[in-house]
Amino acid sequence: MLGGGLLLRFIWPGSLGAPDVPGPWWLVAGGLLVGVGTRLGNGCTSGHGVCGVARGTRRSLVATITFVATAMLTVFLVRHVLGGVA
Q: Transmembrane segments in this chain: where (predicted)?
């Protein structure tokens, strides 16, 4: 994942956000956080959301609700509290 993000950053520089991003270290930090989150959550968001919910596992239902709620809160904070930075 980290390599793919870095490759995309060099092939299409404007694709990963505002041009004032301080550099590729944000990609490194983001990749590490995704990896840690995947490990802590015992799977990725799509694995829980597609396969786990379809199987009806409680862990995947809770994980998917947590992912969606966190995403909604993040969008709200970025758009309304931080003044529409993204």
A: 23-40, 61-82
Q: What does the pLDDT look like over 20-71, one tens digit per residue?
A: 556 677 778 878 888 887 888 777 777 888 888 888 889 889 888 988 898 8
| CA dist list (Å): 24 to 3, 39, 74, 84 | 11, 23, 22, 23
What does the chain look like in DSSP terms, one character per residue?
-HHHHHHHHHHSGGGGS-TT---THHHHHHHHHHHHHHHHTTS-HHIIIIIIHHHT-HHHHHHHHHHHHHHHHHHHIIIIIS-S--
Domain boundaries, the chain: 1-40, 43-86
